[in-house]
Amino acid sequence: MTTTRFAPSPTGYIHVGNLRTALMNYLIARKAGGTFILRIDDTDPERSKEEYVDAIKQDLEWLGLSWDKLERQSERLDRYVAAADKLREIGRFYEAFETPTELDLKRKKQLNMGKPPVYDRAALALSDEEKAALRAERGDGVWRFKLDHQRIEWTDGILGDISIDAASVSDPVLIRGDGQFLYTLASVVDDTEMGVTHVVRGSDHVTNTATQIQIIEALGGTVPSFAHHSLLTGPQGEALSKRLGTLALRDLREAGVKPMALLSLMARLGSSDPVELRSEMAELIEGFDINRFGAAPTKFDVEDLYPLTARHLQSLPAEAVSAELEAIGVPAEKQASFWDVAKENITTLNDLAGWWQLCRDGAEPLVADEDKDFIAEAMALLPEGPYDTESWKTWTTAVKEATGRKGKGLFMPLRKAVTGMERGPDMSALLPLMEKVRARG
Ligand code: GLU
């Protein structure tokens, strides 16, 4: 059975980059009728925060990315202890005592000699006495997994055939000196025990994958299918890493971006399929195919989310936004007609309040000097409300007859006087919603 997982570390809010990972794993599981696990990678007690765990769940719920199981690495430490014991037993795990400074020095020497900065395995040569002495002097060492020096190969769902020489990679540290289990081991143990069949993650994990494949094999697990998506860049191809902090899902939500706009974009961006606005998650699931994604960096422009959001909103009936309409004070009997007028003139729901304020309070008239007399004459012809859908036509016809103006010279000054703006909704539909026209005096 297909099982995927989204495995964020709760050390910050999730952003569009993480969303790509979450969504791809979600869509694979749902398309196959399988299981989607939300796994909180919280083995680092200092950096992991409960508020981020809550925020991750809220963000996924907002998007409708429901999970079938919730797992937390901090509750599975005994499993990692058992795996570490097994690696020791089979001779694939060794303790090393170099300080960060010593490791740094080694790397620099290697680089100077034109060699790749791979850990030299000096710790393998330590006798039991030497280890005991180092332990007494420096405390517990780190535990490294002893890679098998051969090529590690897999067919990546996105990158195609991958082959990495294990000798070009340092033996990964799986347990820190303070006893903390690191992600590389914890993830492998979880993926194996939770029956994860497909792992999609960012291409920054490719080297991890190589080492993890050997760890999985050493522990007797089944290697899942891997796919590594390309990293997101800004619209000009610039690195997005520093800006990702400002692209947190909660900020986008706050800015009025709608889930289906975000999901429609992220489920297709970087694939050979066009981005099309979808109205249902089912359509995204149906059309999803990981093999259609390319390895090239993927350009992401946050501005693309707004036209998609606007189009999504235009497709909604008033009932779908009744809470928002109510929140800004639109009375129930006016909600449908107000929404019909406003929806064509908003980018996000945050823009609704401005239109409602115009209807309720009227606008400061915008009148050019040369139109002053014309507007005064026109306003004398505007009857008192309430207005209906015929009012605009009746009024403008009367103004035309009285002043001889027509076309743009007639309609534009009137629109500006009534709404205070040069552009906006169809006036025949707007006027009946207006409780007050300030220019009328
Ligand atoms: N916690 C890891 C991360 O956020 C998970 C990576 C993975 O998917 O294995 O990078």
Description:
This protein is α/β, with parallel strands linked by helices and 441 residues long. It has five domains: 3-71 and 187-233, Rossmann fold; 79-175, Glutamyl-tRNA Synthetase, Domain 3 (Glutamyl-tRNA Synthetase, domain 3), CATH 3.90.800.10; 244-313, Glutamyl-tRNA Synthetase, domain 2 (Orthogonal Bundle), CATH 1.10.1160; 317-350, no CATH class; 362-440, Orthogonal Bundle (Arc Repressor Mutant, subunit A). It has helices spanning 16-31, 50-63, 77-89, 100-112, 128-138, 183-193, 206-218, 249-254, 259-266, 281-286, 305-314, 322-327, 332-342, 352-361, 372-381, 391-403, 407-419, 427-430; strands at residues 3-6, 35-40, 69-72, 93-96, 142-145, 151-156, 160-165, 173-175, 198-202, 225-229, 232-233, 298-299. The strands form five sheets. Strands 1-2-3 form a three-stranded parallel sheet, covered by helices on one side. The termini are far apart. Bound molecules: glutamic acid. Glutamic acid (GLU) binds at residues 7-9, 41, 183, 187, 201, 205.
CATH topology of the largest domain: Rossmann fold
Which regions have little confidence, pLDDT < 50, spanning 5+ residues?
none
Number of strands: 12
Distance between the termini: 71 Å
Structural class: alpha/beta
Kindly state the mean pLDDT as a whole number? 96
Architecture (CATH level 2) name of the largest domain: 3-Layer(aba) Sandwich
Q: Specify Rg, calculated over alpha carbons.
A: 31 Å
* Main sheet: strands, sense, barrel: 3 strands, parallel
How would the global form be characterised? elongated
Q: Helices and strands, in N-to-C order?
A: EHEHEHEHHEEEEHEHEEHHHEHHHHHHHH
Ligand species: glutamic acid
What CATH first level of the largest domain would be assigned? Alpha Beta
Q: What is the H level of CATH, i.e. the homologous superfamily of the largest domain? A: HUPs
Beta-strand portion reads 5-15%
Number of helices: 18
How many discrete domains? 5
